[in-house]
Design goal:
heterotrimer, A mainly alpha, B alpha/beta, C mainly alpha, A: mainly alpha, MetI-like fold, 2 domains, 12 helices, B: alpha/beta, Rossmann fold, 6-stranded mixed sheet, 4-stranded antiparallel sheet
Amino acid sequence: MEKTIAAAYENAPKTWVYKLLLVFGVAAMLIWSSSTIVINDTTGSGLSVAKNILSGIFHPDTKLLFNFTNSGVLYLLLETLCIAFLGTIVGAVISVPLSFISASNLMPRPIALVGRLAIAAIRTVPAFIYGLMFIRVTGPGPFAGLLTMSLCSIGMVSKMFIESIEDLDKRILESLDAAGCTTFQKIRYGILPQLFPDFMSTLIYRFDMNLRDATVLGLVGAGGIGAPLIFAMSSYRWNEVGSILLGLIVLVMIIEWISAKIRTKLTRG
Amino acid sequence: MRNILAPQGTSSPSWYTCGKEGKPMIVFDHVSKVYPNGTVGLKDINLSIQDGEFVAIIGRSGAGKSTLLRSVNRMHDITEGTLTVEGVNVSTLKGKELRRFRRGIGMVFQSFNLVSRTTVIRNVLAARVPEMPFWRVLLGAFRKEDKITALESLDKVGILDKAYIRADQLSGGQQQRVALARTLAQNPKIILADEPVAALDPVTAKQVMEDFVRINKEMGISILLNIHHVELAIEYAGRIIGIHAGQIVYDGPSKEVNQDVLDAIYKEAVPQGKQT
Amino acid sequence: MSFYDRIFKPRRHTLSNGKVVEERFTRLPLIMLIILVCTAISVRITGFSFSVLLSGGQRFFDILFDMFPPNTSYLPKIWTPLLDTIKMSLLGSFIGAVLSIPFAILAASNIVTNRALVFVVRLFLSLVRTLPTLVCALIATYIFGLGTMAGTCAIAVFTFAYVGKQLFEIIETVDMGPFEAMEALGATRLQAFIASVFPQVLPSYLSVSLFCLEGNVRYASILGYVGAGGLGLIMNEKIGWREYSSVGMILIVLFVTVIAIEGLSHAVRKRLT
């Protein structure tokens, strides 16, 4: 019995070699990446800035927060909300045909591939580039922001739409066919009911994210809460930064909570 | 309801050992368990199990078999009475002592409770984890002695050749043996088994029961197991304990279990007692 | 929603055998109304107008056509920022993913029995998640100065929150049987977690982290806009100088990189699950 046990021990698969290689590989990549960690903080101001930020956030400028005029935080949050809302809708409108084209179970493979490449290309362009481009079209302001958001949404929305489309259960179409339905009826009663909850869920999820990304727009002057945030930061008015951040976080959390509820309702019916 | 304690000196089957030293291993003394919502789990249990015995507990679902078993290693707490294992009052243990105590008791579950994605030997090595330093646990770096112990345990249940295969690629019976090997790697004095063969087909169930018998005879480990199949219980265990509505209604040699006894154990609940 | 039912009474259908079935009045009109109102408000506030779109749309494509053909001679200058972007994403994702592990464990209600602790940790994770990455990067540039350090930090924070949430959700759906077995043989909760739960969640965890890494590479280019290093920085520069063909080159390089990384990550993730 001793012999067999010893034999089994010796014959254990030598997985440690792979593990060691993996660890080395990862470590090498990390060390190579660590050149990005550069702290040129010779004056020690970094820490004091952090302290100021924290104190500013915890003592928000309430005057700015509750200012109901055009430049008040609340109005800008509302503007950001509207930008995200319409941006998601416009993005959805563009995504739907695009995803149908790119679905490999509905279209021949080459076309689907082209569609996907197009979506990937649209997705790669950073938001601020779209922002700058749209500002040329509409002038600075929330309209440009809306259009930017819609293009940015296309990436994720299309990807999830395509997944839903490719997961379609074709058997329902079969039974509708057997009942004698026209193509239009098959689409309306066979395909749409399957896609609709997923689509809505995706759109709500994206709306969430657009709300957060809308701060980018402020950077390029495309409206929303981003602009005053940047101004306040560059003037080191951390109290204002605090109030804006507070408003933003509260808004996002509320919307997130509502959207989570809606989404569970959609999936559970 | 009759309460028969094992008569001394009866001619018992060869595997019914009344303990080599005859010392009491597990002693229940007027033990009761009442849940917070008022349900009675166990009612006035008096039981003494000797070192080296092989005891099977039978009864309906919800009668209290599981509760009885799990109170031995304090997976469930009792509300009244004293439960002593090897002289130690189980209710007084906590923290480190409780964990040290549990290391001496092995437990086998109905659903095997293996980590399906890892290899068989890693599952058995899990038994050595409580005695290893943190960094070894984190990195999964087991020492040679531990690995040899694990391999020996696998050999004792006859699946040494499957040591480096992923656990979920084995059949149900083999997986239960891995679970058994895991308990053997703890070097326990007692093995508790909660419906160990309920998820297995009849042939494999017999094989696993024979494994239990072998472990009990060859290694002298006391075995306390819950089981639904009365025939298996009578065939393999020396002593049967019948539980009904949280109370012991039969405690005696398996030979003497007859239809009356079974009726007492499995009949419908009388309205006076609370069915859990 | 019984309030709604009181206003729009459910319709009652009487069957031929006398049974009565109530059909709730469909919520659809209400939902449509809400959506229309929201749209109207949004259009008003954002100044959406088709006419502007039509008249100005041409200019959008003007810039687009300016970008192609791209300026290939600019390519050598792109390498360093590109590598910077990749490095930032790698390191940031790694740090974020690793840091999220203890927090995800603490936020999993099946491992930690103290409900207050679970609630607080989840709240913390939510808070960090709602912080827009760009804001994070901006703040980081003030603390650490311009450059890649700020970007890495921002990415780490975002990854931390995202992976943290996904991870604790994964942990909560894990099979607790082996965990129970470990506790029965005398292991501490932490030991039981490492030996039984972690092997189960590891593939999903790696999958989620890789997915986050994919997104972070794209994100990293945006961060450069606020001065956090990488491709975004030079993009910003070139746009400022209106050298659109160079911008086009950068975009192409970014596109190829993203596709490569996504393909790689996809392949690895397929093998994990």
